[in-house]
């Protein structure tokens, strides 16, 4: 549908669901692969005591690469990829909630506000437990213990062993904290992402409308000047 300002609004029923999910996951995965090593490095730098192990981002990158190879930069990556589900759930929840709210209000602001908050609630409920396990796996390294939990046996294992490490970490979290251990920081995440998402989407539609008006005004102004023809070349002599 289009509103009075000729701004096209894409709703859930307009999406090609098959392409949306396939391309969405593929694009997110490519981005995740490229930035994950820096996420791991950031996490380790935040957890270490002072500069006991790494002296900075570049130093951490070199030391991890030398000690564990490229795979060392991707500890916990396989588990972390499950957060792709939360991304798809976020968008699905957002669009379906907008469609539901549309039965009660046609205001884009109201629809976006409710849908944005609901989408973040669902996404964070899925993301936080996965992040907790993934971050504990990021802390696994040869030598000095960095995190609360240490994988037993072979912490530098690769390939299929990574899922063995995941099971070990999950068991240790359950023994230490119970199910609540998988939701450490959950409330803080909700307080961060729900307001952010709830406010961002209404502003997105607002600025889309404003941008549409500006573009329309520029187009109309340009058209009027084009219609003027030779007058564009008339320059007042008094400005010199």
From TrEMBL:
Q: How does it sit in the membrane?
A: Multi-pass membrane protein
In terms of superkingdom, the source organism counts as: Eukaryota
Task: Fetch the SUPFAM superfamilies from UniProt.
Answer: Mitochondrial carrier
Q: Where in the cell is it found?
A: Membrane
Q: Start-end of the Solcar repeats?
A: 18-100, 107-210
InterPro entries for this protein: MCP_dom_sf, MCP_transmembrane, SLC25A44
Protein name, entry field:
Solute carrier family 25 member 44 isoform X3
Q: What is the lineage of its organism?
A: Eukaryota, Metazoa, Chordata, Craniata, Vertebrata
């Amino acid at each position: 549908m289009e509103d009075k300002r000729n701004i096209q609004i894409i709703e859930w029923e307009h999406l090609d669901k098959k392409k949306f999910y396939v391309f969405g996951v593929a694009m997110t995965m490519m981005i995740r692969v490229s930035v994950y090593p820096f996420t791991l490095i950031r996490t380790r730098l935040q957890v270490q005591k002072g500069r006991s192990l790494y002296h900075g981002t570049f130093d951490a990158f070199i030391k991890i690469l030398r000690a564990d190879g490229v795979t060392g930069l991707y500890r916990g990556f396989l588990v972390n990829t499950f957060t792709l589900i939360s991304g798809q759930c976020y968008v699905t929840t957002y669009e379906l909630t907008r469609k539901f709210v549309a039965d009660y209000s046609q205001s884009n602001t109201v629809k976006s506000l409710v849908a944005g908050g609901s989408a973040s609630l669902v996404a964070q409920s899925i993301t936080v437990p996965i992040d907790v396990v993934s971050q504990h796996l990021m802390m696994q390294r040869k030598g000095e213990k960095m995190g609360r939990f240490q994988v037993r046996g072979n912490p530098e294992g690769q390939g299929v062993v990574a899922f063995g490490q995941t099971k070990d970490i999950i068991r240790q979290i359950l023994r230490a904290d119970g199910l609540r251990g998988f939701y450490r920081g959950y409330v803080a995440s909700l307080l961060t992402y729900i307001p952010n998402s709830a406010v961002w989407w209404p502003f997105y539609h607002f600025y889309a409308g404003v941008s549409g008006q500006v573009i329309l005004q520029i187009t109309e102004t340009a058209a009027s000047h084009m219609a003027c023809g030779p007058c564009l070349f008339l320059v007042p002599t008094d400005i010199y």
